[in-house]
Amino acid sequence: MDSYLPIGRLKGRNIKDRASLINAALGREKADLVIKGAKVYNPFTGAFQKGDLAVAGGRVAGLGSYEGKETYDAQGGFLIAGFIDSHVHLESSMTGPTEFAKTLSTFGTTTVIADPHEIANVAGTTGLKWLIEATEDLPINVFIMAPSCVPATHLERGGATLDAPDINELLKHHRVLGLAEMMNFPGVLASDPGVLAKLSLAALIDGHSPGTTGPSLAAYVGAGISTDHECISVIDAQERLALGQRILMRQGTAAKNLLDLLPAVNSHNSRFFHLATDDHHAQDLVREGSINHLVALAVEARPNDLTSILNMATLNPALHYDLRDLGALVPGYFADMALYPDLENFKPTAVWQRGNLVAQFGRSLWSKPPANTDSFRHTVTLGQLTLDSLKVPAIGPNIRVIGVVPGQIVTEHLIETPTSSRGFYQADGPNDLAKLAVWDRYGSKKPPSVGFIRGLGLGFGAVGATVSHDSHNLVVAGVDDNDMLLCAGHLEKIGGGLALALNGQILGSLALPLGGLMSEMTMEETVRELEKLSASGRMLGFKDDFDPFMTLAFMSLPVIPKLKLTANGLVDVLAFKIVETVF
Length: 583
What we know:
Blueprint: H1 15-26, E1 31-42, E2 47-56, E3 59-64, E4 68-73, E5 78-81, E6 83-88, H2 97-106, E7 109-114, H3 117-134, E8 141-146, H4 164-170, E9 176-182, H5 185-189, H6 193-199, E10 205-207, H7 214-222, E11 227-228, H8 234-242, E12 246-250, H9 258-261, E13 273-276, H10 282-288, H11 291-301, H12 306-312, H13 315-320, E14 337-340, E15 350-353, E16 356-360, E17 363-364, E18 392-393, E19 399-404, E20 411-416, E21 420-421, E22 424-425, E23 433-439, E24 449-454, E25 462-465, E26 474-478, H14 481-493, E27 497-502, E28 505-511, H15 523-537, H16 548-553, E29 563-566, E30 569-572, E31 577-579
Parallel strand pairs: 1-4, 1-5, 6-7, 7-8, 8-9, 9-10, 11-12, 12-13, 19-24
Antiparallel strand pairs: 1-2, 2-3, 5-14, 14-15, 15-16, 16-17, 18-22, 19-20, 21-22, 23-24, 23-26, 25-26, 25-27, 27-28, 29-30, 30-31
């Protein structure tokens, strides 16, 4: 099997490999694999072709009438190149890379463009080296964009810092394609020397500029940033397209933008659109699927645009990220593909990676032990947990409140006058106003930053997590201070994860000992534990269709408007500065 080759379709292949491919294509020798009776999608023509697909040396040899050492009867099914997720944080699945890859392969996603800035924020280059090693020889191709913002901005602090020299070393790896989402758009616009040094390192640079428009957006794009996955409206997409950016239409757990953006797609511009999940929790991944779910949603909404939609999931991202071996089933390309019985549900019956059957009927056929993780298992160290640290003195008439926006990771900047008692502002469960606290979990032992949040639907107790983008500090929301402290202490004890508390007891928790981000269990076991947490969450007031942990995870990210809480304090993202909760 060829090694990962991000550039050059036939680069690095020896004479024997080329000869085998030629001989199989001409029928001089049997192909390694022949898939008979399929309708094969060709993204270059937009048509399905009938015939036998021949595979030799892990690559497509030809389509016609072939004999193979191994045959597979497609029974008239639709054979499509493996789907590509253009932007994903695999750590957000809350499982290790092996379980993540096995699950994606069952849904026909055979390639991901991963931004591992979650583990980078926790464990720096140590975590990144582990992840690169852990994603070798999996049933999917994992290409990596080097994290550009660790930490995301100077307004938060995490477990590590990546500077330009660190990124330059990462870019030497053959699976690291470029620079991941440049979230520090204020730094770009200010021509910050450190930011410019990072931008100078790569030709491929992904973007992240929610709310940016006009001359500011032009300046940001002009810095060399070629994609955006933060569009939430047609207007957003159209403005970025007009400036030459590719649009990654996102549909994950917290942010669901695909259907809102589809009207921006037309026959002329569709080649500049890709599909991405960004952050996808284990439950949603298992229940919905991966890129196949996005394709199914898009086809249902736009049934006459099948060709454009399939290309968004295959050839478009392959061309943009210079993955010239992927995205189509034509001679010389890798035989990464999935067989679908219909073009509506997009649930594959068989999936191949480089001609090897890796999943069938929704079950992974892959087995590989996970990589060693001893180097970053103990990453949660808090200071003394006291009730006084959670008190918010009522020293002014108003408070700033983070307002949750359903289905989005942006927030509102609300101004309210809450109830006070004994000189301190209080949470108000019945009226959906909770306290929010963020602890630096990396050994500073400082007291938490404390603010307020509206719209979580938390009526009782507390909910906490160490999955908190992007620095992944420990964040707890609650309407009872004692339960908030209980959550924090429990998460420190189990090495990070998710937890719920009510009336002085831990209702449930999920340990995520790998950097406080990922479980060591299988995907199925992780999902079962998450389902138990969801059931317990209803006791706190959460609705069935709401994931409090995914929403909570973005309440500390100070590059997503409008108001966020970090370990450094409350951040007005549009003003790009720390502000007081009480004023």
